[in-house]
Write a structure and sequence with these properties.
alpha/beta, Rossmann fold, 2 domains, 10 helices, globular, binds S-adenosylmethionine
């Protein structure tokens, strides 16, 4: 197998030597195959809701697919896994809302795995807010370029049990629309240049939202103020595009 893309490599680097893993929404299966072929994960489970997608992973696995350690499972989200069956779970290349739904479907099972690596294609801020509100710890936020896009990779530890996750922490947290959920401080510190480019992308999006709001007659002062606040935050870290 050829090397991974920078995005998949960043995710692979979050899996420690000896950790078993499952890849939810594996599609081509490149990430788990890399981890297995390079002796990083002693066993990998490749999962996808789509049989045709899973067929791609089987084709990529080639001769390995009949090996003991490779496991292909068709089904929705974490439903195809037993509680605690692997150390780490990757959910990459899906929307943040779908990732949230997959996790919330069965919190007891969700909390049975030791670590998650998420790569939401969008709605990362929503996902971060939901995770922290429900007792998950975000240990790392990273950015990586893929073509014209900047992608987010989030490494997360779940609460020790779903009971901890029952505590709603939202009262003690910044509001859901606070831009700190979009552009967390650790990202700004660890990858300042890329974070600056990402802030500029976010700034452009918010400026378009503001233009639309100004043309509309039924936008409240509060909504306008919120968008202006987000623009100020992104402008303070990024630049005009
Ligand atoms: C864009 S691909 C991402 C492939 C790979 N994970 C990556 O990041 O390059 C998204 C995959 O997620 C699968 N998928 C979508 N919803 C799913 C769900 N609820 N459970 C499992 N897989 C799902 C799709 O069938 C598709 O193969």
């Amino acid at each position: 197998m050829n090397g991974l893309t920078d995005r998949l490599q960043m995710i692979a680097d979050e899996i420690k030597q000896g950790e078993t893993m499952a890849d939810i929404g594996t599609d081509h299966g490149f990430l788990p195959l890399y981890l297995w072929e390079n002796g990083i994960s002693p066993s990998v489970i490749m999962c996808d809701i789509s049989e045709p997608s899973l067929a791609k992973a089987k084709a990529a696995a080639g001769a390995y697919q009949f090996g003991r350690e490779l496991d292909f499972r068709a089904g929705d989200g974490l439903k195809v896994l037993k509680s605690g069956e692997v150390d780490a779970v990757v959910i990459a290349g899906m929307g943040g809302l779908l990732i949230h739904d997959i996790l919330a479907a069965d919190m007891e099972k969700t909390c049975s795995f030791s670590k998650y690596i998420f790569q939401p294609r969008n709605h990362a801020a929503h996902l971060r807010y939901w995770l922290v509100s429900n007792g998950f710890s975000i240990v790392k936020n990273q950015l990586v370029r893929e073509g014209k896009f900047i992608c987010e990779v989030i490494t997360v530890l779940p609460p020790k049990s779903s009971k901890n996750g029952d505590t709603d922490l939202s009262d003690t947290l910044p509001a859901q629309d606070d831009p700190c959920w979009d552009l967390p401080k650790d990202m700004l510190l660890s990858q300042p240049e890329l974070a600056r480019d990402y802030a500029a992308v976010k700034l452009g999006i918010e400026q378009k939202i503001l233009e639309g709001m100004r043309r509309s007659s039924n936008v409240s002062d509060c909504e306008l103020h919120n968008v202006e606040r987000r623009i100020d935050y992104f402008r303070s870290y990024g630049y005009e595009v």
